[in-house]
Design goal:
- The chain has helices at 2-37, 78-84, 87-107, 129-139, 153-158, 161-172, 204-207, 214-229, 242-250, 267-279; strands at residues 40-49, 55-66, 70-72, 115-118, 147-152, 176-182, 199-202, 233-237, 255-257.
- With 285 residues, the protein is α/β, with parallel strands linked by helices.
- α4 links the parallel β4 (115-118) and β5 (147-152).
Length: 285
Amino acid sequence: RAKNRGGGQHCLFSEELALEYSRKVETETALTDAVQRGEFLLALQPQLSLLTGEITGAEALIRWNHPRDGVRAPATFIPIAEQTGIIGDIGDWVMAEVAALIASWNETGKRRKRLAFNVSPRQLDRADFFGRLRQCFGAAGVPLSQIELEFTESAAMECSAATLAEIAALRADGATIALDDFGTGYSNIARLRTLPIDRVKLDPSLIKDIESCDKARVIVQAVIHLVKGVGCEVVAEAVETVSQADILRAMGCDTVQGFVFAQPMFETEFVAWTNGADRGLKGAA
Ligand code: C2E
Ligand code: MG
Ligand code: MG
Ligand code: MG
């Protein structure tokens, strides 16, 4: 009996694997056309100063408006896009869309501070990524001071010297550089001193337990101290409660991004939210 059940489980397991594989192939095929079909959207999530409550910027987060499944989160397709190289085209689309958004905001006279977007390490494989980035924003009339590039900690640690020099040059020309998901990879703390970065984004896993756990607070306090000590700004990500925000403020964290203040929103809602926040919500932080 036990044997039979074991065999059954084995069979079920293979079916699951087969299903997962076929989903992956399906996603891969659909992704190839999704850029041309205009199926991607950017959701925008505000970032707020913990000191003043002001909106200091926003992060652009990709969504796939899938013809059958509806709006899909990046976790369901970005890893596949990275494995297959389709991330190159998707990344170019994100860049162009960010440039167009900022340009249109500038035109209406409501100049927003900065829009951040995520850059996958695989995008840097494509020839002349940095040249094309400069071309993209230059053609749209968007100064580099209005953009922020987010590289994950693990990606930054693997960057070649040539890539780091390109990033440093962008930064020298006004772009803001953020280290994303800090605290999840092999946090090479010594590298913090030499990487060309302005801000460090604390990974949600660091923040999750700060209300309930003394040790979690000690760790976050130490990381904030370290990051600020080397001259970088600290951004806390996925802040979900007012008390987390209060603790982070008391610890000297500069900026927060999280559901407690705002979800990622599509453009119309984002613009309305930021207009409202500029008028009256300043005290909310
Ligand atoms: P990330 O860059 O670390 O983005 C932050 C993620 O945290 C977003 O998930 C955001 O919706 C989520 N988040 C924000 N506030 C809260 C909160 O209070 N609670 C919780 N639980 N989550 C919160 P999202 O949009 O699903 O994106 C996931 C990841 O996908 C991103 O992590 C980033 O690594 C990747 N990604 C998103 N857009 C792009 C893109 O355009 N290009 C590339 N290469 N990767 C992207
Ligand atoms: Mg990010
Ligand atoms: Mg992150
Ligand atoms: Mg992430």
